[in-house]
Amino acid sequence: MADDGGGAVSGLPDTPYPLGPKLGVDVGLVRVGVAGCDRDGLIATPIRTLKRDPRKNNDVRILVREAVERGAVQIIVGLPKNLSGREGPSAEMARDYAGLVVEELQRQSAPLPVRLVDERLSTVSAHRSLHAAGLGSRDHRKVVDQVAAVEILQHAIDMQRSRRRDVGDPVPVRAAAGTQSTLPTPTEEPDIGHSTPSRRESES
Fold first, then answer.
1. DSSP-derived 3-state class of residue 31
2. Residue 24 in contact with residue 137, Cβ under 8 Å?
3. Distance (Å, whole) CA 148 – CA 64
4. How distant, in Å, are the alpha carbons of 52, 58, 59, 60, 160 from that of 55?
5. Cα 173 vs. chain centroid, distance in angstroms?
6. Each residue's pLDDT expressed in tens, for the chain with a length of 204 residues
7. Cβ contact 18:1 at 8 Å
C-alpha cells in the first residue's frame, strides 16, 4: 500500500494516517536508537543503535536505508521537552536531526513523511523497563536508546489508532536554502508524560 501524500493510504481513503511499517528514532548526542513496528502498527520492537556521526552523518544515511529496506511508510522522531513543555537544546538537536533525515530521504528519492512526537518520559520509562528486566545500570547504555525508541514509536502508533489521525508535528521539507515548503497544521496529542532532565544533555 502506498501513501497518497495526504496522510492516507491508497485504497483506504478513510484512514487519516499512513498504514504499514514505521520507524521510531531516539536522538542522542552520542547514540541514536532505532525501533520499528509491524505492518498493522500494533507492536514496536527495537532494531539497532547507531553511533551519532555529526561530521559525515553516516548514521542518517544508515537510518534512511533501514527505512527504505523495511518498506517504512513513516519515521517518528522523539522530541524531548523540559518539564514545562518548553523546548531546550535537546529538542533543537532532535529537530535538526529530523531535518537531516528529511533531506537524506529526498536525496535517496524516498520522500517518506517524518514527524516529531513529544517524548518527555521515554528515557525514564526505558531505564525503568531495563531495571525491571534485571539489567544492571552499567549495561543500560548499550540498549537504552533502542528501548527509548520503542517507547516513542509505541506511543505514536497507539495514539494514531485511538484517535484515528496522525500525531506529532510534520517535519518540513527544505524547498531551497533558507526556505521551507508549506506544511499542514501540526496536530496535537497528549504528551508521553513528565520526566527528569534528558540524558542527552549529560551524555559525553
1. strand
2. no
3. 19
4. 9, 8, 10, 11, 35
5. 16
6. 444 333 444 334 456 899 999 999 999 999 999 999 999 999 999 999 999 999 999 999 999 999 999 999 999 999 998 777 788 899 999 999 999 999 999 999 999 999 999 887 544 454 455 445 454 555 445 678 898 999 999 999 999 999 999 999 999 987 433 445 433 344 444 344 433 344 454 444
7. no
Contacts with 179 (C-beta within 8 Å, 6 or more apart), sequence order = none
Do 143 and 49 contact (CB within 8 A), yes or no? Answer: yes
25 pairs with which residues across the strands?
34, 77
Helices (H), ranges, the chain: 58-69, 89-107, 122-132, 137-163
Q: Per this entry, what is the length of the chain?
A: 204
Give, in degrees to the nearest 5, the angle at Cα 83 between 23 and 98. Answer: 30
| Identity of the amino acid at 16 | P
